[in-house]
Amino acid sequence: MKDKIEAYAKRLKLSWIREHFHEVEAENHQEYLLKLFEQEVQNREERKINLLLNQAQLPKTGNQPFQWEHIQIPQGISREEILEGHFIHQKENLILYGGVGTGKTYLATLLSLNAIHSFGSKVKFFTVASLANKLIEANQKGSLPKLMKQIEKLDLLILDELGYIPLHKEGAELVFQVISMCYETKSLVITTNLQFGQWNHVFGDPILTEAVIDRLIHHSHLLVFNGESFRYKESLLQQ
Ligand SMILES: Nc1ncnc2c1ncn2[C@@H]1O[C@H](COP(=O)(O)OP(=O)(O)OP(=O)(O)O)[C@@H](O)[C@H]1O
Ligand SMILES: [Mg+2]
């Protein structure tokens, strides 16, 4: 009988039930069945979240709470709406602008984690340079449409470090295509150390740069990160 139950559970893709049905204790049939269903659903949700976390490829983070003191937030959005990822439902963008070590990547990572855990959002984290390389490589291999389709399925795309490395022409054009595709269909979070007026240094072409900025800022919130580098402060504290 045990073998048959396992076989049916497998056919029905009830993997938790297949492995654990014989361990569950209950007073009656209904309670037993309820426990099985509850555990199966919980297990599925955990697996889904783990999969989303794996796919997102977020940087490792510490667990210190996020400090907002040196960050200017525009009107129309609150700290909670940012940190909890609520702007994703409106398909709005965030631009996180400021100097090194001020928490841009940290905030982008924390809000991504929250969106995955709370809403099961599909998130993907790239540095701008790594996305450009990936797009160029896919273009050469003929797999660009496939990569674009994967990006199209996301709810939130994080583009980190816009500004540290200028893009080659092909990379700039392909990154533009991605930003264009995301326009009004999903949320983008971009971290940068450059004011808009200097984005030309990254994209290398004023017309392309203008088109990028135009799409980005239409539904976006600009957060300005002031203050000193946390990395610097933390290393001073350790000494
Ligand atoms: N506002 C903050 N609240 C709490 N911790 C912070 C904050 N900002 C930075 N930190 C800490 O400092 C580390 C460095 O910050 P982060 O990597 O986010 O900087 P960044 O703005 O992305 O810098 P860069 O432009 O050099 O990439 C974080 O991993 C975190 O531990
Ligand atoms: Mg960073």
Automatic annotation (TrEMBL):
The keyword Ubl conjugation does not apply. Gene3D superfamilies: P-loop containing nucleotide triphosphate hydrolases. The keyword Nucleus does not apply. Signal peptide: none annotated. Transmembrane segments: none annotated. CDD domains: AAA. Keywords: ATP-binding, Nucleotide-binding. Residues 90-223 form the AAA+ ATPase domain. It comes from the Bacteria. Belongs to the IS21/IS1162 putative ATP-binding protein family. This is IS21-like element helper ATPase IstB. It comes from Tigheibacillus jepli. The gene is istB.
